[in-house]
Amino acid sequence: MKKFLTLIFLCFITLSTYAQNFNFGGVSAEDYIFDRNKIDSTANAVVLREFGTAMMQFNDNNGRLELYFDHHVRIKIYNKEGFKEANIIIPLYKDANREETVSDLKASTFNYVDGNFIETAMDKKAVFNEERGKYTRLTKFTLPNLKEGSIIEYSYRLTSPNIFNFKTWEFQSDIPKVHSEYVVFIPGNYNYNVSLRGYQKLTDQKSEISKECLRVGGAAVDCSKIMYLMKNVPAFIEEDNMTAASNFKSAIYFELSDVQHFNGSKTSYTKTWKDVDYEIVSDRNIGDQMKRKDLFKDLILNLTKNATTDLDKAKAIYDYIKKQIKWNNYYGKYSEEGIKKALDLRSGNVADINLSLIAALSAANLDAEAVILSTRENGTVNKLYPVISDFNYLVAKVNIGDKSYMLDASEPLLPFGLLPLRCINDQGRVINLKKPSYWIDLKADQKSIINYILIGKLNADGKVTGTITTHSLGYAAFNKRKEIKKYNSTDEYVEKLDERLNKMKILNFKINNIDSTENTLTEIYDVEFTMFDELKDQFYFSPFLVNTISKNPFNLNQRTYPVDLGTTSDERIIIKISLPAHYELLEKPKDLAIGLPNSGGKYLLQTTLEEDIISLSQILQFNKAIYEPEEYLYLKEFYSKIIQNQKTELLLKKAK
C-alpha cells in the first residue's frame, strides 16, 4: 500500500508538546519488566523507544548544505535469539568526492543486578568500517555484556551530503516496536514529495513552523517541522519469494521536488520523462554509448555471415558479446568508462556489456533499444514522476518483426530472450534514441521446468539401484548450469553433490548440454539408495525418493506483501521401482488432486503397485508468477497437504 503526500509549506499553529527525544541511559523498571505479550508474545527482542531527527545545516568548511540525521534506539532483549539485535550495521554512501560519516556514537548495555541497573559502555575500539562496494561503506559495532533480559541502547549522528533523498525512516524492522517517532525540519524553500509506504498506518502526524532553523549566507530560513509517529508496530518478517523488503515495510520516503533560491530563481528536480529522455540520450555514459556502432562495423559481416534471418543475426551478436566481455559483478545503468574500454579490457559492468550489445545490434541494422530497470532487491521504481536514482540496471531490447526480445549478455549461461530473475521486477523504462521512452512489463518469458525420471530396482539386500534422469529447461536449466559452473569440472560438481545427498550414492554420471543454452540440460545419474539393512517379509517403503517436500515455505499467519516467484513453474516426477518378489500393497499415500483458486496451480499424485512395480507420478505446477497477500493462506494450506501426505509410506507384505 502506498500513500502519497505533497508537502505544502503553510503556517501551522505552533505545537510544543511532542517530538521529544529520551535521555540516554534513562532506563527504568518499566523498561525492564515490559511485557512483550502486549505487542508480540513470540518476539525475541522489542524496540521500546526509537527517536530520530533530520535537519539541514550549512557547513562553513566546505560551503555546502548537509543533512544531519540523529538516531536513538532502546531495545529490550528477551532471549539469546534476540542477541543478534545487538549487532548494528549503519550503511553509508560514498563516491569519489563526497561521503557520509558517523559521529557522536554512544552504545551501552544495561543489566539489572541486585536491584540496580549496571551500565556497560561499548569500547570505541569495537567500532569498525567495512568497504562493501564502490558506493557503500558499512559502520559496524556490537554491544557488550549481553544477557537474557538486557536492555541495549545506542545513538549516533549521520552527516550526509545527499539532500535529494531526505533521510528515509523505517518504522518497521525485524522486531516489533512500541514507539517509533521521526521529526524532520525541512527549509521552507525546499519542497519534497513524501510517500508513506507499507501496510501500517501512522498513529499521529503533526506539523509546526520552526523559526530560523537554518542560516545560509547570512539569511535566516524558517522550517516546516513535521513529526511522524507510529506505535505498536508489528515486526516485518521476511519470507522467501519476495522482492525488496523496502517495497513493503512501513516507512516514510522523501524525494526533492524543487528549490526556491534566494535570488528568486527556482530549480526543479521533479522532471517529465521528456526532459529525462533528452538527458539520457545525451548522456555520454548511456546515449552516447548506444550510438557507438562504429566499434562493430568491421565485425558484423563476419559475425553474421551464416545468419539467414534477423533473429539469427541477433543471436549471433548476443553470443559474441557474452563471450567478449566478462561481467565484473557490478550493476549499473551507466557505462563506467565507455564501451570501447570495456571491449579492450574484455571486462565491464552490466551497462558496459549491454550497451555494447545494443551498439552491435544497431550496427547490424537491427532495431535495438535500452531498458533501464530496478532489480528485485533494489525495490520498485516511482511511477508518478521520473526518479533516475531508482534505476540500477540496464538491459537490451531488440525488436524483430512483430516480436521483442529482452537480453542481458552479462550472464553467459542465459539463453537468448531470457532475463535473469533479478531483473523480473514490475516494469522497466525503454530508452530509444529517436522516440519517447515508455514503460514495459518485466515478465519471465519462460517457465522453470524440471522433470525427474527414476527407474530402479529394490534388491534383496535392502538397496535400490537405478538411474535418475533429470531434464531442465528455462530458469531451472539456467540455475543448474550456474551451479555446475561454480566448480572446476563436472567431476568436482558431482563429487560435491554426492557428499550432500542423504542415503544416496552416485555411481556414475553423464551431463549433456551444459554450454548449449538453447537446448535441454540433461543429467543422468546411476545411483544407489540404502533403504534397509535387510529386506523383510513386511516393510514400509517411502516412494518419495526424489525432491521430497519436507518444509513449508509459508509459515506466517498473515502475509501483507505478495508471494513473488518471479516465474511460473512445472515440476514432474516419475518413479518406477521393481520389487525382488511378489508383494501385496496394504497401505499407501493418498492419491491427491488439489488445486489453488483461480487455476493458480495444482498438485497431482498417484502411487500404484502393479506387476511387482511401484509407480509414482507427481506433478507440481504454479501457474502464476505473483500471488497476492489474500492468496497466501491458500498457498500455505496447499503445501501443508502435500507435506502431510508425503509423510505416509507404502506398507508392503510378501505374498504367499
Report on the architecture of this protein.
This protein has ten helices and 36 strands. The protein has 656 residues and is α+β, with helices and mostly antiparallel strands. It folds into three domains: 2-268, Sandwich (Immunoglobulin-like), CATH 2.60.40; 273-441, C8orf32 fold (Roll), CATH 3.10.620; 448-654, Jelly Rolls, CATH 2.60.120. The strands form eight sheets. An eight-stranded mixed beta sheet has the order 6-5-9-3-2-11-14-13, with no helix packed on it. It has an eight-stranded mixed beta sheet with strand order 26-27-25-24-30-34-33-32. The protein starts with a strand and ends with a strand.
**Spans of at least 5 consecutive residues with low confidence:** 1-18
Looking at the structure, the CATH topology of the largest domain is Immunoglobulin-like
Q: What is the helix fraction of residues, given as a range?
A: 10-25%
| Main beta-sheet strand count, sense and barrel state | 8 strands, mixed
Number of strands: 36
Protein name: DUF3857 domain-containing protein
Pfam families: DUF3857, Transglut_core
Domain Transglutaminase-like: 300-380
Domain DUF3857: 69-207
Give a quick precis of the structure:
This is DUF3857 domain-containing protein. Helices cover 15% and strands 41% of the residues. The chain is of the alpha+beta class.
Topology at a glance:
Layout: E1 2-6, H1 29-32, E2 45-59, E3 64-77, E4 87-93, E5 101-113, E6 116-121, E7 128-131, E8 136-142, E9 151-160, E10 169-170, E11 177-187, E12 190-197, E13 204-216, E14 219-233, E15 251-260, E16 266-268, H2 273-282, H3 287-290, H4 297-303, H5 310-324, E17 326-327, H6 339-345, E18 347-348, H7 350-363, E19 367-373, E20 393-400, E21 403-407, E22 427-431, E23 438-441, E24 448-458, E25 463-473, H8 474-485, H9 490-500, E26 504-512, E27 521-530, E28 538-541, E29 563-564, E30 569-578, E31 583-587, E32 592-596, E33 601-610, E34 613-622, E35 626-627, H10 632-646, E36 650-654
Parallel strand pairs: 2-11, 17-18, 24-30
Antiparallel strand pairs: 1-12, 2-3, 3-9, 4-8, 5-6, 5-9, 7-8, 10-15, 11-14, 12-15, 13-14, 15-16, 19-20, 19-22, 20-21, 22-23, 24-25, 25-27, 26-27, 28-36, 29-35, 30-34, 31-36, 32-33, 33-34
